[in-house]
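User: Here's a chain of 211 residues. Predict its fold as C-alpha cells.
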Amino acid sequence: MKDRNTLIEYPKYKSVLIVADGPSAATLRTLRIPNEIYVIGVNGAVQWLPRVDAFFTLDPSKRNRRLMVRRRSRVKYYAAVPDDYGTPTAKAKGHRAPRERGVTFLRRIPGDGPTGSCPGMSNEPDSIHSGNSAWGALGIAHHMGAEKIGIVGVDGDKKARISGGRPNSLTHLPWLFSTYNGPAEVVNGSPESTVTCFPKLTVKEVLQWLR
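Assistant: Prediction complete.
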C-alpha cells in the first residue's frame, strides 16, 4: 500500500487498560477510570465506554468501518488491515471502499495459527499480529511501552456483546493469548474468561492494580 503510514508514534503510558466488548466489561459503564490509565476500546466498546483514549480493530467489517467514520472526538483510531485494504482490487469486497480518514492504519500480519492467528508480539511499530481484535490491542499496548496492562471483556464465549451481536468462534483465544511474549505484566479482569494464562482479578481490582 503506497500511502501506508511510514512513521507511527505512540503515546507513552505505563498503565494501559484494554476493554473488549464481552459482557464481563459492563461494570466499566459505572466505574471511574483514573486519568493516569490509558484506555483502548476494542471494536464496539468505543460506543459505550464513558471514557476512552483510543479505538482499535483488527476486523474492518462493515460495522467497524462505520465506527471509524463516526469517530468520537479526542479519541485516537487505529486499525490493523491487510495490505490491499482500501484498494479497488482488495480480495475482500468489503475492503474495496477508500480507507477512512483520520485513522492510523497498521499492517495486519497473519500467521499459521487458527483462523490465521499469529503468535507473540510484533516489534515493528507499523505491524500488529493477527488473531483477534483484543489480541491486536495488546500489540498496541506493547508498542506503547506499557509496563502494566489490564484486559477486560475478553470472555472467549458466544454470549452477546455489550454493543450488540454475537462473536464468531473464539475457541482459539486461550492458545493465542498464551503466546504473549512482551515484557509488560498483564492481568485479566474477566474472572470467567476462557483465557487463563494471566492472573485473574475483578474489574475493580484491575483498576486498582493499574494505578
